[in-house]
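Q: Is it fine to ask for two folds in a single conversation?
A: Yes, each is treated on its own. Send the first.
Q: Here.
A: Result:
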Amino acid sequence: MKKLAIIGSGDLGQQIAYHSLNDNHYDVVGFFNDFLPKGTVVNDLSILGGQEDIKRLFNLKVFDVLMIGIGYKHFRERAFLFELYKESIPFGTIVHSSAYVDLSCSIGQGVIIYPGCILDMNVIIEDNVLLNAGCVIAHDTIIGRHSFLSPAVKIAGFVKINRSVSLGIGTIIIDNLKIGENIRTGAGAVVVKDLIESGLYIGIPAKKKIELADTVG
């Protein structure tokens, strides 16, 4: 079994470690965290060091694959770290055993798919995407890299989600739509037309509420 190290030891990093270990994907050796001392124990796993230690410990074969446990509140850092290391360190992928992923689907590096997700025919999940529990992605839909889908998101067929999109819990998107980069939706939003401009969209139907400062160029 390959050894996994996770950047970030907060709630998301701990969830990735939990599913990796309990669903028999990787042997988790610890976390990288710039804000805790090396050797600190978090949920029975040690802090291996900070970002400056990642390449050195990979070269020493302390771990085989890397994943990013940084969530939707820090999209810029989430994307930056993946792009920084993707050419030199392999990224792991976790698809929970309770998820249904059709054989025609394409799953990128650094992806985690939580319990109970359903991915229909020809779905494409690009790199460094998180699908939280119970997401349903219909046929021929694309989820762009670095995106983050909260629990129970439902997306119909032929939808194109661009990079660094965060969909709030229970968001629904009807078929044949395009969602632009750096867009976020609030809980329970219902998207019935293309969303192009960066910002937070809420309500039924989803309408833009505010601009977002923490976007990824």
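Q: Second one now.
A: Result:
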Amino acid sequence: MNIILLGYMASGKSLIGKKLAKTLNYNYIDLDAYIESEEQSSVSELFEKKGELFFRKEEHKHLNTLLNTSEKTILSLGGGTPCYYNTMTLLKTNENFKTIYLRVSIPELVSRLKSEKAKRPLIAHIKTDELLTEFIGKHLFERSNFYNQAEVIINANENPEAIVEAILLQLF
């Protein structure tokens, strides 16, 4: 069984994915890092120079490539990946992967994101914590329908070790 981690930015997909892969002796792939390697450009640069629509098309193309792996793999998606091109339908019908949503509260997301806004193209322009809270709340509301279609939902407000343990308990 392969595992796909999804959730909002800063929900811990990369950190948890790496820890989970190490624990299970699986390969780990971060979709954004894979795209950056294949496109020879950062996600931020792709957004800035070619626009979000271009990025989402490339993201979907690369995701389809990765979904064909037969190796034991943990795949972390970008925060918006499940929301475009019927991706959740594609993921739910792929028997090789189990989807896990790392759900994090809005206050915790704000806490995690406020110091790294510059690295996040969708929030780099937001000036105050209040506006960031408002943006995340609205964005999560728009995306929650997609995220909640995951086969497993994990409370990811905890420390990384507790999150990995909760995932393992749900899977095995």
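Q: Anything structural to flag on that second result?
A: Two points. The chain has seven helices and five strands. The chain has one domain: 2-171.
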